[in-house]
Amino acid sequence: DTGVSQNPRHKITKRGQNVTFRCDPISEHNRLYWYRQTLGQGPEFLTYFQNEAQLEKSRLLSDRFSAERPKGSFSTLEIQRTEQGDSAMYLCASIEGLGGWEQFFGPGTRLTVL
Amino acid sequence: AQTVTQSQPEMSVQEAETVTLSCTYDTSESDYYLFWYKQPPSRQMILVIRQEAYKQQNATENRFSVNFQKAAKSFSLKISDSQLGDAAMYFCAYRSQTSGSRLTFGEGTQLTVNP
Asked: Can you say how many angstroms the Cα of residue A62 is from the centroid of all Cα atoms in its chain?
């Protein structure tokens, strides 16, 4: 197992465009988390899934943001009508089962909105 | 809501010396977890050490140890025998027992290790 993977690693887009990021968690990790990290700050929680169910969403997740995990495996995070304030690193993490406690992080997708 | 504060944006240490990174947090809960994560430049975040709030004994992992003061809501990280590879951004994080395991992070401390 190679750990949590995220694609793309970098995305540059123009304001107003839609972007989609993908996260592949460690296999059999049934909980998956999305965080956003702006430059010089700690990550902030966005949302999390247990299997395919989205169980919690942060107030940071405006209605331009949507996340899915259709089969309980990989997840996608879509941002519609991007704004310059969306520029950040988007991190994904996963945890093994109900007894797991360590979040394993992916390398992140760095989004730049011009 | 819980908050985590790291008051040292930057720290530096000489190779082989000891450095302590500070973290305070605010919560009304009695049972929770605290973590230190390391984020090297352009690399993914990795767990350094964790502490369960119900344990009085401070956690230790090789050269890394914590000083957990529950009443003071303080959770500092001590790195002994610092190595060049320890240079990174360090984040303190809080996890509630009831929040679905989401983490609340501090602002981070950038650690420089001088040869």
From this structure: 14
Q: A-chain residues within 8 Å CB-CB of B33? A: 101
Of A24, A20, A9, whose CA–CA distance to A89 is shortest?
A: A9
Give Cα separations from B93 to A54, B17, B47 (angstroms). Answer: 22, 25, 10
Residues 6+ apart with CB under 8 A from A93: A4, A32, A33, A35, A103, A104, A105, A106
Per-residue pLDDT averaged across A1-29, rounded? 94
Residue-level pLDDT at A1? 55
Residue whose pair of structure tokens reads 């993977």 in the numeric block: A5
Contact list in A for residue B100 (CB cut-off 8 A) is 31, 48, 50, 55-56
CB-closest option in B33, B37, B44 to A101: B33
